Amino acid sequence: MTIEIEKLTYKEPAPIKDIENPFESMMERFNIAAKVLNLEAGVYEYLKTPVKQVITSIPIQMDDGRIEVFEGYRVIHNDTLGPSKGGIRYAPDVTIDEVKALAAWMTWKCAILNLPFGGAKGAVKCDPSKLSRVELEKITRRYTANLMSVFGPDKDIPAPDMNTNEQTMAWIMDTYSMHVQRTETAVVTGKPLIIGGSLGRKEATGRGVMICTLAAMERLGMNPLNADVVVQGFGNVGSISAKLLYEQGCRIVGISDVNGGWYNPNGINITKALEYVAEHKTLDEFKVGERITNSELLELKCDVLVPAAKEDQITARNADKLKCRLIVEGANGPMTADAEPIVFGRGIRTVPDILANAGGVTVSYFEWVQDKQGYFWSLERVNRRLERAMKSSFEAVWETAIQHNTTLRIGAYILAIDKVAKTLKLRGIYA
């Protein structure tokens, strides 16, 4: 089976039956950009195919003495621009297709932000809420040991993602260092400050969302001081995005976490929300207005919607119910491919995930550079350089979208794919 793109024939990567599958959803956008770029068939095949896919068994002895085997993944999508870079998530429902999509998105993020990295992603199929700290450490260390031939400061550099954190990265760094018999801080990013982490890294993704939101609002003639904002998700990305937009004068009228959300048209005090979650771990009993579901939260009337939870939150089933002017994607893949034409057709602008949430990988790059140099920057320098990088990339994506009369997402894909394709042609194919 083939698909025709501007007189060029490409082998189709897979029958696209379920466009809510993250990898297939990514390929929908990739195909559109490839058509606009008139991408050569061979280059198309190269860029859509992951360089490496690893599935590994992780046997550990649980606290009660029994042995349980978990499944781990690492996908390197592309390393044309440099060492591959991408987070590791722990989740009971993670799939290899999800990891493939996330790895591809990392390739495009790094290209858009002009970082010398390719894209990768990793995962372990487990439920961290049901595991002890000792069990999580065992899983992390065995996963790292199994991937010693993959990881490396100049090969593949992990970072935190869903349900992983600074401590997880510290275990990875230590395990890798024990195997190579030297302390290698640059093998991971998102580490604790005391072992080579960077100031500003924890807030970086949310700060990037804030920077992109303000840039888009300026382009659309929207005043932050008169803007109602809804944020889905109150984890690291969502809570920090809400906090920073709140500090910029935006009125945050809706917030949520996995248990549901709250709506208050008069605005929610995000400082108090953060204090509440720090003490109670959830927004469940925060009680700041009307109790709503996550689905209802997405359909609230607002100026800006920030989906910062999971994939596939905006679909063809609810896209026609959105009541916002601007969407800024804090999460990876929160909008399915079949929802996008509906959203765009209704005049709602979308700052795509591969731009909006790229602040994390940008400051991860800064951390990697600092580790390599053994010289660390001030928070002011980190934030200043992040803002400069995000604004520059936003403007490039906006202009590319205008040039090709398309959405910001396709503009971002065009920009990223064109850069990787040109680099590939210059490097050539080793055979």
Description of the molecule:
The protein has 431 residues and is an alpha/beta fold. It contains 14 helices and 14 strands. Among the domains are: 146 residues, Rossmann fold, CATH 3.40.50; 148 residues, NAD(P)-binding Rossmann-like Domain (Rossmann fold, 3-Layer(aba) Sandwich), CATH 3.40.50.720. Helix 1 packs across helix 14, helix 4 crosses helix 5 and helix 13 crosses helix 14. The longest helix has 25 residues. The protein is globular and about 55 Å long. The two termini are 27 Å apart. 52% of the residues are buried. The N terminus is likely disordered.
Percent in helix: 40-55%
CATH topology grouping of the domain at 204-351: Rossmann fold
State the secondary-structure class. Answer: alpha/beta
What is the terminal-to-terminal distance?
Answer: 27 Å
Looking at this structure, what is the CATH superfamily of the domain at 204-351?
NAD(P)-binding Rossmann-like Domain
Total DSSP helices:
14
